[in-house]
Amino acid sequence: METIKRNILLNPGPSTTTDSVKFAQVVPDICPREKEFAGLMKGLREDLVRIVHGDLEKYTSVLFCGSGTINIDVCLNSLLPENKKVLVINNGAYSTRAVEVCQYYGLPYIDLRFPVDQIPDLAVIEDAFRNNPDIGLVYATHNETGTGILNPIKEIGALAHKFGAAFAVDTTSTYAMRPINIEDDNIDFCMASAQKGLMAFTGLSFIVGNRKMIKKSADYPKRSYYCNLFLQYDFFEKTGEMHFTPPVQTIYAAIQALREYWAEGEKAKWARHTRVFHAINRGLDELGFRQVIKPEWRAGLVSSAIYPDDPNWDFEVVHNYCYERGFTIYPGKISKTNTFRLCALGAIDEGDIREFFKVFKKALENTGVQIPVRYND
Ligand SMILES: *Cc1c(COP(=O)(O)O)cnc(C)c1O
Q1: Distance CA 255, CA 29 (A)
Q2: Is-contact 341 332, C-beta < 8 A?
């Protein structure tokens, strides 16, 4: 097997992949309408449910060809009954994206906002239910990737169910990393894509959801054709195939990534991501960087560091220096504070982070940034 230059991606996805996953895409040409290919997809769909410990009778997974945002689109446009509202629990950029999807489809929604560095207040959420008996669908983000805050999914889900609403959660940046139990965590629908926790490639996204609720949604208003959850589910159930052309090679890579997922194991994998996350935080602490989210609220995968008050700090220059040496860092996603992010996704370990910080520190020194970094207040 050839070797390919190994880049360490510290951006919030796509993530660093193994060479075996990269090479799994190189396969003989095949028409995806062949039985052989449908057989591969059956196993893949079941594995995706198993990752969140779902009972295969009760839960299923539905695949889509697209980046992770397609899942947000599909869940919102497909799962809202007539004359009902969506409640979006919004404390960050990804939940704001869900609000925008509601706006684009003209769905009635409540944008229940909380500060980006705060956990949503459950009492406020409960009030929203009491004041709006027509809430039919609740939407939240598990790990708000813009900041790295962990939202109390299980508690929000319990409230949704208490008030008779379905609960959809964006788990794109936790799935196959931070362990999830779909039923115990009160989730009806969760979503992810192959390029994050699974450490495979962009182009394959999926929703793991409650089968009965998907069937029930057949009677809900149809707002999209390509992005309708029931239509795609029903086609899978009848034919074993995706309704339209699947991302063939991406699926081969995802299947290899799943083999590697089971071989590493849920616990060991989460322990590895945690090791990487601690190494990132140690490195940031040593250089004096402040972070947006307080330690006990972090989801354990994304660190959001605040730009120092140093006239020599230039994110672009630091980024370029690191990038040229095989390390990718990423800007933040908060409107009022300037931040950059370092993420613990992908096929990397703490040794990679130690190497990264040598390079990063050098970048700061070269540009004349004072170490430890300074802040004005
Ligand atoms: C990465 C991510 C997405 C998907 O983003 P795409 O750019 O469409 O892949 C959605 N939600 C969360 C929380 C994410 O981290």
Answers
A1: 16
A2: yes
Q: Does the beta carbon of 95 sit less than 6 angstroms from any atom of ligand 1?
A: no
Q: Give the tens place of pLDDT for each residue, 245-272.
A: 999 999 999 999 999 999 999 999 999 9
pTM over 0.70: yes
Centre of ligand 1 to C-alpha 28, Å, is 31
Q: Token pair for residue 192?
A: 């992810």
CA 361 to ligand 1 centroid distance, Å: 29
